[in-house]
Amino acid sequence: MMAQSPRYHGDELIPGRYNPARLFENDAHSVRYSKLRPSLAEESAEALVKLLGSGKPSLWIDVGCGPGTSTKRFIGHADKIIGVDVSESQIKVAKETIIHPSVSFVRGSCEKLPAEDGTVDIITAVQAAHYFDLPAFYKEAKRVLKPGGVLAVILIHHFADSTSSRFLDIFQMFYKYISNFDNARSYKIYSNPYEDIILPFEEQHRLVFRETYKKRFDDIIDVYTTLAHFENIRKAEGLTVEEGRNFLVKKFESLGITESDKEEAFSLTDDTYILACRK
Residue 36: is its pLDDT beyond 60? Predict the structure, then answer.
């Protein structure tokens, strides 16, 4: 019998240099995250409601919601939406910046969701599942989902989409560098992207939505300052936020970015990968 490639279902605890669980508890970082992070593709919410197939959801829970970057995309697609995150500062920013009668935010974890048994239509986890204890998350999802309810883990993959091979090489080298400051467990399932995650229900769907846009170099650096990698770099090097930002700029310069390059608008692509299953 041919051996199968290993797939990740959450019980592999791979030692990494950094613990990602406490990376998003700085208020300033949460504010940067809220203002600068790209959100998931606009089509995502409608696609998930279509998979549900039973009309407008009555209750939608967005787990690992951060400052509500993804949660706000779901407004209007469900009667009630609850964003859940372990970080107090992320929840604080979400409550301050996203005010809508259908949306609430609570501090909590993927292992204990704020819902009664069999009451939730859709559960999403955007840019978060690679930090979860997946068996515990799946057990809780099974508890709260209605029969036919949808569970979706979603990844937004950012990459350079330039016609210049030099720029592509530079961005790839930079990504390889910052990957040294990621948790090995999360990096393993984040980088492929999510192809090795095993979902808990038999009916499964994989959707991809692509968005292409342009950003100048300074704007790209600003986005990088919202990443967990950036917080790890700052801590490892003992840098302030501004010093850390300058550190990223110098790293790009060492890889070949010139002053004239910094004036160019780079073409970037976001791929939203949705791995969904129905109970």
Answer: no
